[in-house]
Design goal:
With 454 residues, this protein is of the alpha/beta class. The chain contains ten helices and 13 strands. It is elongated, with a radius of gyration of 40 Å. This is histidine kinase.
Length: 454
């Protein structure tokens, strides 16, 4: 194989065979005009056309390779050898120009002649290493000096990563440069990914802060509304307790009381929502109680409000004791029963069922015979601000099921739904017999699929 015999400064041109052909239509010789982007002058290193060419090929990024040699024919020969790599080759003719070029752009590596007038290759390499930006830049020396070990060692001491002696084998030169180009491009890709990741994290943190601020404002407003609302409800209650109140005024105060109670429910939901999203979950205070007794209490209240509707009990045992926050569970059961009544025909019954499974797990099911929930709504049914299409739903915030699931999860339990034309809609609540103080602990409901109503 023929080697690339690069001419040394001050030597008379010697006849040497051209390097091995790079491809069938290209040879490295004095008349060669390489197709690789070439920058023969320092002032053109950051030329706009070069930058446009780089930007036009985002899928095939290119690296810059700096060639430093005071002999134009040597530069031309090196450019021809590196042409198949398809990178941006920048050629300069002195150590001073090389230092200036390195101030303007980033490079994958430098190929530098050792013997140059003025600032030689060794001193240029030493100065490159003193700059923080270029202290790790790979430098490959190309020299016609002898293989004397002391001189080669001196080159490595001045920052060389490799030392090529003339005549240079073109294939070896291309292989060495391609390694540094690949390392450089991989590093650039990693840096770009790191920047994108940092930007994505910054945006996510800003969104998180905005969300937390919004939820905190909701909580603050909810607390501030309670004081004037309490005054309104107290005034309405006092007036309604008067026996001699005229009918027109009684109806007006009844409307005020109903509106105030509705506002109270909305405020309570907003505060629970804020606790669930900002405070790390809805707090529960477990205490001993009977789940069946709680269900009787909730049903009695609903029957008084809706005497025309039928709610049926199906209790596997007379009592179902456990340790839970009964006030919070009352909120969950009332929400599930209220939804069942809203979304089922008036002439059908709503079924409430409780039973136990083993000694550590209890279940509560609420079933209605209404039209099944559309399949596309099921994945988001427990998300906040999701409302149904039934009557009165425009007055709802769509927080009931979200809060109900948050309360159940605070106990270490689960809340699921099944809705089919055959079964109707069944909400199944699984609870550990004793509410978990730490919801991260293993729950008896974890991974358990509740047996649905037949």
């Amino acid at each position: 194989m023929q080697a690339l015999n690069i001419q040394r400064t001050g030597e008379a041109p010697t006849a040497c065979p051209p390097p091995e052909p790079l491809h069938p239509n290209a040879r490295v010789n004095a008349a060669l005009k390489p197709s690789v982007p070439r920058t023969p002058a320092l002032t053109a290193v950051s030329d706009a056309s070069l930058l446009r060419h780089t930007d036009d090929s985002p899928d095939s990024p290119r690296a810059r390779v700096l060639l430093v040699d005071d002999t134009p024919s040597n530069l031309l020969a090196l450019e021809g050898v590196l042409e198949p790599l398809g990178q941006h080759v920048v050629s300069v003719r002195s150590g001073d120009e090389a230092l200036k070029a390195l101030l303007l752009d980033e490079y994958a590596c430098v190929l530098m002649d050792v013997q140059m007038p003025g600032l030689d290759g060794l001193e240029t390499a030493r100065l490159i290493r003193t700059r923080e930006r270029t202290k790790h830049l790979p430098i490959l020396f190309i020299t016609a000096l002898s293989r004397e070990a002391a001189y080669v060692t001196r080159g490595y001491e001045y920052g060389a990563v490799d030392y090529l002696l003339k005549p240079v084998d073109p294939n070896i030169l291309r292989a060495k440069v391609s390694v540094f180009v690949e390392l450089y491009l991989r590093g650039e890709k990693l840096r770009q990914q790191a920047l994108e990741l940092a930007e994505r994290r910054r945006v996510e943190e800003e969104l998180q802060r905005a969300t937390e601020l919004e939820q905190q404002l909701v909580g603050i407003v909810g607390h501030d509304i309670r004081t004037p609302l309490a005054a309104i409800l107290t005034t309405a209650s006092t007036q309604l307790s008067r026996e001699a109140l005229p009918d027109a005024q009684r109806k007006a105060f009844e409307r005020v009381a109903r509106g105030g109670e509705r506002i109270q429910r909305i405020v309570d939901q907003l505060l629970d929502f804020t606790r669930a999203r900002v405070g790390g979950g809805i707090p529960v205070v477990p205490g001993a109680g009977d789940l069946n007794e709680l269900c009787h209490k909730v049903v009695d209240e609903l029957r008084a409000a809706r005497p025309e509707r039928s709610i049926q009990f199906d209790f596997a045992h007379d009592t179902l004791p456990g340790v839970w926050d009964l006030d919070r569970l009352e909120q969950v059961v009332a929400n599930l029963l209220d939804n069942a009544l809203k979304y089922s025909p008036r002439d059908t019954a709503v079924r409430l069922r409780t039973y136990e499974q083993g000694v550590d797990t209890v279940y509560l099911e609420v079933q209605n015979a209404g039209a099944p929930i559309p399949a596309h709504l099921l994945p988001t049914l427990f998300q906040p601000f999701r409302r149904g299409d039934g009557p009165g739903q425009r007055e709802s915030l769509g927080l009931g099921l979200y809060i109900a699931r948050s309360i159940v999860e605070a106990h270490g339990g689960t809340l699921r739904v099944e809705s089919t034309p055959e079964v109707g809609t069944v909400f199944s609540l699984c609870l550990p017999r004793q509410a978990l103080g730490d919801t991260r602990a293993h729950s008896s409901c974890a991974g358990v699929a509740a047996p649905m109503t037949a």
